[in-house]
Amino acid sequence: MPVLVITGTGTEIGKTVVTAAVAATALAAGRSVAVLKAAQTGVGPDEPGDAREVARLAGGVTAAEVARYPEPLAPATAARRAGLAPVRPRDVAEAAAKLATEHDLVLVEGAGGLLVRFDAAGGTLADVAGLLGAPVLLVVPAGLGTLNTTELTARELRSRGLDLPGVVIGSWPEAPDLAARCNLADLPDVAGAPLLGAVPAGAAALAPAAFRSSAPHWLAPRLEGTWDAEVFARREAP
User: Fold this and answer.
1) What is the pTM of this model?
2) Binding residues for ATP, per the UniProt record (predicted)?
3) Which of 36, 10, 3 is nearest to 165 (CA)?
4) 78/68 Cα distance (integer angstroms)
5) Binding site residues for ATP, as ranges?
6) For every residue of the chain, which 3-state class applies, written as one string?
7) Active site residue 98
8) What string of pLDDT tens digits covers the 238 residues of the chain?
9) 40: Cβ–Cβ under 8 A, 6 or more apart, which residues?
10) In principle, which of 58, 111, 180, 235 could form an S-S bond with 23, CB 3.0–4.6 Å?
11) Which residues are annotated as a binding site for Mg(2+)?
């Protein structure tokens, strides 16, 4: 799996911290890692973006962006309003393919959800995954409402012939409510793919050393971690 695309069912659900956890776990396994942000929005020219946050938390990764725009909007909208060239799926795929010649693993993080538009032609992260032939890891919220958006995204991936290896909960609450605990059983069902991890809420606030040592315990063996979905579900069962 030299390239792994990471998307979510929406924004602000933990994609960047999951990307950092996957990167940290791969680094701990002795692999070289690059992180590519397809389109960074909402930051100025000299401000740190998501790729740099991944590098801060995970450690020795190559951090790169294809494009960035100052307003916190969908990339196509942000590019248009800023008078800047939009990012095209082919640009992202070519950047990822180049990084893959120099690294064991390339993580391509999207912006928002799978079908957020990059350009006026309607290009999306799903198109990037298709060009690369890369699997797409889906990051989801824990609580009420997640089943619908998870199933919709999973169906879209399959309609395009894209591989969904699994789902990771981006922010597992310290005191999960009934919906979150029930979703541990329901998410794999609606996604048609296994749960591959649950990152605890507030993980990004950990010191980097603590984040790196903890990350493998949040992810399943398929992502080179030690997290066990069955054990976790039994512990959190309603």
Assistant:
1) 0.95
2) 12-17, 50, 109-112, 170-171
3) 3
4) 9
5) 12-17, 50, 109-112, 170-171
6) CCEEEEEECCCCCCHHHHHHHHHHHHHHCCCCEEEEECCEECCCCCCCCHHHHHHHHHCCCEEEECCEECCCCCHHHHHHHHCCCCCCHHHHHHHHHHHHCCCCEEEEEEEEECCCCCCCCCCCHHHHHHHHCCCEEEEECCCCCHHHHHHHHHHHHHHCCCCCCCEEEEEECCCCCHHHHHHHHHHHHHHCCCEEEEEECCHHHCCHHHHHHHHHHHECHHHCCCCCHHHHHHHHCC
7) no
8) 599 999 999 999 999 999 999 999 999 999 999 999 999 999 988 899 999 999 999 999 999 999 999 999 999 999 999 999 999 999 999 999 999 999 999 999 999 999 999 999 999 999 999 999 999 999 999 999 999 999 999 999 999 999 999 999 999 999 999 999 999 999 999 999 999 999 999 999 999 999 999 999 999 999 999 999 999 999 998 7
9) 49, 50, 51, 65, 67, 68, 69, 111
10) 58
11) 16, 50, 109
User: Residue 1: its pLDDT value, please?
Assistant: 59
Nearest by Cα to 35 from 47, 48, 69? 48
Q: Which of 167, 104, 156 is nearest to 129 (CA)?
A: 156
Which residue in 1, 49, 15 sits closest to 153, CA to CA?
15
Annotated binding-site positions: 12-17, 41, 50, 109-112, 170-171
Q: Which of 9, 34, 37, 58 is catalytic?
A: 37
